[in-house]
Design brief:
mainly alpha; about 75% helix; DinB/YfiT-like
Length: about 60
């Protein structure tokens, strides 16, 4: 029973870490989209060095 309890505890901790990761991921996503909402259409379409071109093209391109 002791080993079984430890395994359950480790699984629970692992699940909590995954949940925290997804919460953080959604927070960063929301912050990024809020920042993008402040940009003009021209800024969103402007060619960039990173990504695959413009910010909008990077958002909607599929690799």
């Amino acid at each position: 029973m002791y080993l079984h309890g430890n395994i359950l505890l480790l699984c629970h901790i692992g699940v909590l870490k995954v949940i925290k990761f997804f919460e953080y991921n959604w927070q960063v996503r929301d912050e990024w989209l809020n920042w993008c909402n402040q940009l003009t259409t021209e800024d969103l379409l402007k060619e960039r060095l990173g990504g695959v071109g413009s910010i909008l093209y990077t958002f909607f391109s599929y690799y």
